[in-house]
Amino acid sequence: xxxxxxxxxxxxxxxxxxxxxxxxxxxxxxxxxxxxxxxxxxxxxxxxxxxxxxxxxxxxxxxxxxxxxxxxxxxxxxxxxxxxxxxxxxxxxxxxxxxxxxxxxxxxxxxxxxxxxxxxxxxxxxxxxxxxxxxxxxxxxxxxxxxxxxxxxxxxxxxxxxxxxxxxxxxxxxxxxxxxxxxxxxxxxxxxxxxxxxxxxxxxxxxxxxxxxxxxxxxxxxxxxxxxxxxxxxxxxxxxxxxxxxxxxxxxxxxxxx
Length: 258
Known about the structure:
- The chain has helices at about 1-10, 20-35, 55-60, 70-80, 95-105, 140-155, 170-175, 180, 195-200, 210-220, 240-245, 255, and strands spanning about 15, 40, 65, 90, 115-120, 160-165, 190, 205, 225-230, 250.
- Strands 7-6-5-8-9-10 form a six-stranded parallel beta sheet. Strands 1-2-3-4 form a four-stranded parallel beta sheet, covered by helices on one side.
- Helix content is about 40%, strand content about 20%.
- Strand 9 (about 225-230), helix 11 (about 240-245) and strand 10 form a beta-alpha-beta unit.
- By secondary structure, the chain is α/β, with parallel strands linked by helices.
């Protein structure tokens, strides 16, 4: 079994990006039986939200936790002080975002008179058939209606080329619901490459949910605006508001967002 494997092979650390998948659960449980083996979590995504589920999935099962950025480091150190969370030491490991910064040094050449390019990164549709009551994932019907109006707004701004970064998750759903609308709008280009490869195409970045792509965009050196609906205002971490200022803003109606 895993406990014996750890002991026989003198395993010092078990490293994972979460404690919520099946493989991680087994590895972490075995480390609790073999006390000499410590558990380490590497943050798999950054965001600006307050969510107590992080106390369980990201911290409670680990001895050490490495955040991707300084804002998350401050927030998770605050989480670690909560009395019902098991002891967990928090550190920062900014290596991923530093690699993003290096990757974004190159820019595509612009021809004289060429339209400015705006990269639009939509929230991933991770819960098409599920409602998250803490609003970490937007209600799907609300979000699709918001997007429909957003694309109409894009269509009127003919001096700009909008690059729609197609989400990888729920790709089939997006192809059925979103892409048919975009094909009729000439100043919207669909892009399927990784986000890091899209920054070189753009002059600015907008998004409607400040998660990992927001932090990556900040490292790109481009102007960045991340919007979020005001019904999740109480979930925005105070550290994020202090750090990002006007790069993160709320809206109450689609018109206000536009």
